[in-house]
Amino acid sequence: MKQEIKFDPLIFRAYDVRGIYGKTLDEEIMKSIGNAFGQIAGDCVVGWDVRGSSIPLAQAFVEGLTDSGHNAMIIGQTPLAATCFAGWKQNINSAYITASHLTKEWNGIKFFDRQGVGLMQEGTFRIRDIVAASKYAKKEKKITQDISSKETIEKYIEHIISKIKPGKKIKLIIDCGNGAAGSLAPKLFEKAGFICKNIFIEPDGDFPNRLPDPAEDELTELSKNAKNAYMGIAYDGDGDRLVIMDERGRKLTPEQISYIILMDLLEKEKGHVVANVECTRMIDDAAKKFSRKVERIPVGHTYMMQAVQKSKAAFGVERSGHYAIPLLVPFDDSIAISYYAACVLSKSDKKLSEIVDEMPAYPFERLNFECDDKEKFSTVERIKQQLKKQNNKESDARGAGPLKINDMDGVRVDFKDGWILIRASNTGPSIRLTIEAETKERLEELKKEFSEMLEEGIRSAYS
User: Fold this and answer.
1) Number of C-alpha atoms within 13 angstroms, CB side, residue 157?
2) 3-state DSSP percent of the chain in helix, strand and coil, to 5
3) Backbone dihedral region of 13: left (phi > 0), alpha (psi from -120 to 50 degrees) or beta?
4) What does the angle CA 384 – CA 373 – CA 376 come to, to the nearest 5 degrees?
5) Edge-to-edge strand order for the sheet containing 404-406?
6) Residue 398 has pLDDT above 50, yes or no
7) N or C: fewer beta carbons within 10 Å in the chain?
8) What is the largest CA-CA distance in the chain?
9) Would you say 210 and 177 are in contact if contact means Cβ atoms under 8 Å apart?
10) Burial class for 267, CB neighbours closer than 10 Å (0-12, 13-18, 19+)
11) Which domains does the chain carry?
12) Beta-bridge partner residues of 21
């Protein structure tokens, strides 16, 4: 059946769909997306975040899905973790209406398999192509069935607490940012026995108190309250990203959060560690203490989850703020991660700031270079070939032997005393240079050398 609609194909991104509601994304488009998803994936659990546009978009998605001849199990407004948990327990796929950490005018949808692993790029683009071809399936309409969000959240909490329990009672500050995490996170921590002060837990799709992305917000209220607690935690709009803050008001990096968890987790769990190519050497240092290897993967939390499941890893981290602990749940879940970190802290005699200050740390810097979307990937490819050619001809001039080059996602070059990564942005017209070194002086050397190489590569793209 032909059901032609006009849409911007750029709303279909590598791992999800995102657009501005009423402009690039509306109910008609979402209905066709639901129908296409039904054609390739079948029945699914459907949940959504707190945005005002999420309910009408979810209704449209369900209509398209059931038109395709498949059932929708509606869980409603929940954090993303609860929707994936329901899909896992029901053994069916999940779809979640959200724009995650983006501002209120945005919305979209994420897709997950039965284990809660996100749909890869080829799957998302397959949905896009079905919508573009107007291949709308019209079969005998299937039913919708409600799943109790309250019961699902209760079962989720029971499940997580059964895996790990806290030591002494410690005080936490939990900032839900008026997002979806407010219906679950405070209940989990309080049920486990933590003393909690909750901030902005009321759902409000206008996000009146702070940005939906805690990494980009100053988190003033959390910082003020964290001084009187052991740890502060902030979540994004759908609860799939988090920030942890120590009692001095410092935001921990994803690697610092991982280090805290790994010092406990690897004592009892087998398996290696998965980390993307942007993650710092702090991950390698933690894994080395337990004689575990680090498997590097491309940027993207879906790659992380696939690698964790395929290789039965103990832990996975994606530098954008996604983590996996299969001991808890088989999917990426920031609420479970923050709970695990809080449990580890509750068993320590040290303050969080003291634990952080004892961690290994190296000079680190990221620089963005403007480059047109049409040129950025080809520019990185030329630089990659240039480095490979140099590597075949000569050893490292600093006596380190041939360079270690990883080209799975951009190009990463590892030296004995540092590394660099040159990678095109998936979301904007830029190329990023990431540098880490053992000393500040070495970082400046690498920064100068590879900034000049990247600037020359960008110039040549326009000549």
Assistant:
1) 19
2) 40, 20, 35
3) beta
4) 10
5) 364-370, 430-437, 418-424, 411-415, 404-406
6) no
7) C
8) 70
9) yes
10) exposed
11) 9-149 (3.40.120.10), 157-357 (3.40.120.10), 364-462 (3.30.310.50)
12) 25
Handedness of CA 318, 85, 90, 161 (dihedral sign): positive
pLDDT, tens digit, for every residue of 319-374?
A: 888 999 999 999 999 999 999 999 999 999 999 999 999 999 999 999 999 999 88
Amino acid sitting at position 444: E
Q: Are strands 72-77 and 44-48 parallel, antiparallel or unpaired?
A: parallel
For residue 81, the surrounding DSSP H or E stretch is: helix 80-90
Nearest to 278, CA basis, from 308, 318, 316: 318
What are the Cα distances from residue 345, in Å, to 93, 230, 318, 340?
34, 8, 22, 9
Written as six digits, the tokens of 271 are: 């398996």
> Which residues lie closer than 8 Å to 100 by C-beta, 6 or more apart?
16, 108, 110, 212, 236, 237, 238, 240, 241
The C-alpha atoms of residue 433 and residue 276 are separated, in whole angstroms, by: 15
Which residues contact residue 325 at a Cβ distance below 8 angstroms, ignoring those fewer than 6 apart?
261, 265, 314, 315, 336, 337, 340
pLDDT value at position 274?
A: 97
How many Å apart are CA 381 and CA 377, to the nearest integer?
Answer: 6
CA distance 206 to 183: 17
Give pLDDT, residue 321. 87
94: helix, coil or strand? Answer: strand
Residue closest to 257 by CA, chosen among 194, 199, 336, 321: 321
Query: Token pair of 287, please?
Result: 């894994």
Question: In this predicted structure, what is the pLDDT of residue 300?
Answer: 86
Residues of the chain above pLDDT 90, percent:
86
In this prediction, residues 388-394 reach a mean pLDDT of 73
Cβ neighbours around 140 below 10 Å, total: 7
